[in-house]
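Hi everyone, sorry if this is the wrong subforum. Our group has a chain we'd like a structural model of before ordering constructs, and none of us has done structure prediction before. Sequence below.
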Amino acid sequence: MKRTLLSSCALVLLLPVLVIGAAAGLLDGGADASLGQAAANVESVAGIPPEYLRLFLAAGSTYGVPWTVLAGIGKVECDDGQDPDPACTQEGATNSAGAGGPMQFLASTWQEYGVSVSGAPPDRWNAADAIFTAARYLRANGAPQELERAIFAYNHSQEYVAEVLRWAARYEREAQVLSTPSGAAGRAVAFALEQRGVPYVYGGESRAGYDCSGLVQAAYRAAGIGLPRTAQEQYDAGPHLPAGAQLQPGDLVFFGQNASDVEHVGIVLAPGEMVDAPHTGTVVQVQPFPTAIGAKWGEQVYLGATRPAATAGEA
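Answer:
Right subforum, don't worry. Here is the predicted structure as tokens:
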């Protein structure tokens, strides 16, 4: 979705442009600390190129706006720098509305708000300048206190606001996954995420193809924990979590008709989100699931969860 950005003349920037200089250390990697040790790998989950991730983090920190919203705008506008549209990538090129660069600024808005990270003249086709300017513009229009209003100022469309916030929420969830502490659960999650896109194969337990329990067994084997082969056996092996317990990355969630008829298993990324190999015709992927015991999940119900990492003393 390319959009027309209108300048705001009523609001004045609250932060001096000089704060950009303080961001230099963040661009060298310091901002990654806000996502934990694995922050530089967010792109492996959310598709954000690492250089853009560092810029979103640095600009968000500098102007006090959520980096996830900057990334959401970048995603909607130019796929976080990956859209081949010349208006996104080619110096001087604009779309039919006159917007150009990775964050799609109009020349008039850029003249009022454009900043330079390097000290050279501000360049709306330069990713660093564009992302910092987007953060400045959001702050000038009410972010972070009035975030929806600020996004609406960026593009006068409620549909646009909703789409940006959907992406921001996804980035927030997946960043939390990457903050998983090291240990068996973290290694199992990392392994499972690396298998995304591998086709479902009944009985599969390698990169040639996985079924649901084959993926789980392989992930925990990579983490140094041996598990039985089938979903039913993995459910029976436990240790089981009590109903209502807070799920953690690496927990296993099970689905079926009842505790004696377990048909499916997935690896928790965050409460309500798992990585699994769903069924024939699909691939290993991330998808939502209900967290209330007995809730419907397709033709099955959610039966409960286990925590294999507890067997490694990581409960």
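For your construct planning: The chain is about 40% helix and 10% strand. The radius of gyration is 22 Å.
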